[in-house]
Design brief:
Largest sheet: 4 strands, antiparallel
Order of helices and strands: EEEEEEEEEEE
CATH topology: Methylamine Dehydrogenase, Chain H
Number of strands: 11
Shape: globular
Strand content: over 45%
CATH superfamily: Peptidase/esterase 'gauge' domain
């Protein structure tokens, strides 16, 4: 068992959600208040890294998946609605958008940078989606 630690400071609880074949881990850490969370990436070289958030309004972020390249996907939320994101070390966090509705979620990513998740529609309901990142 390897203790991956926490971000430190007010960040007191972390969970690992996915691991790739290189041993890199994607997950989430929460502040002591429980009112804010951050998507994280853990690597042997860098330890725990805060991946940030999409914008000031979307302060509850969680990383759900990581591929063999180290690309991370997840969702940032505020008041129950959120947007899926795609993160790379080079480009940071990118908003994946929606199918016209109020929110989307990114759950998994493969080495071809295809992201699986779902998006709400403007007319209501939601659909499973795959985003392809180039």
């Amino acid at each position: 068992m390897i203790d991956l630690g926490i971000l430190g400071g007010d960040w007191v609880r972390c969970v690992a959600n996915d691991i790739n074949s290189r041993g890199q881990v994607a997950g989430v850490c929460w502040k002591e208040s429980g009112l804010e969370s951050r998507a994280i990436l853990w690597t042997r070289n860098d330890g725990m890294v805060d991946l940030g958030n999409l914008d000031a309004a979307l302060i509850n972020c969680a990383a759900e998946g990581i591929n063999g390249r180290g690309d991370v996907v997840g969702t940032c939320r505020a008041t129950g609605q959120g947007h899926g994101f795609f993160w790379t070390k080079r480009h940071g966090m990118v908003d994946l958008g929606t199918l016209g509705g109020s929110s989307s979620e990114a759950r998994a990513v493969n080495d071809r940078r295809q992201v699986a998740g779902f998006s709400h529609l403007s007319a209501g309901g939601s659909h499973a989606v795959i985003w392809t990142i180039r």
